[in-house]
Write a structure and sequence with these properties.
single chain; 141 residues; alpha+beta; four-stranded antiparallel β-sheet; 1 helix; signal
Amino acid sequence: MSANHYVRRPLIVAAAALAFTAVTLTAASAASNYEQCTAGGDTLDTTVYYDSNGSYWFVESNSFTLNENSQDKNNVYMRLRNNGGANTYFAWTSGDNIVGENTYQIPVNENVPKSGGPYMKTNAIFDQSGGDPNCSTYANL
């Protein structure tokens, strides 16, 4: 075998190890924040998923579940904001069709500056007979 054959094998192994390290570092930067609120006996559970992107947070998605509620006409809205709510980077509002006891994951795919106290606000209006109670979670990034 030639000398080049022996030189290439360690380089391939080193390149594979470096690629694996880069994937590991990227996966380690992912974060999430779980929040919960309650109103009228119903509960909103939320989790926002995000990654560091330099001086920004890249928000991948926000999931929510309405617990203790089996109605099918609940409402949910979410807002990705910073600077005390002065700036909105993402807005989503459901129809009058959110079914309780189901988990929904909404893609966000937005960057928000790390400065200014960014957060994801999720508000649920629980369908109940009589008045419909509501509550909001605020997941800081």
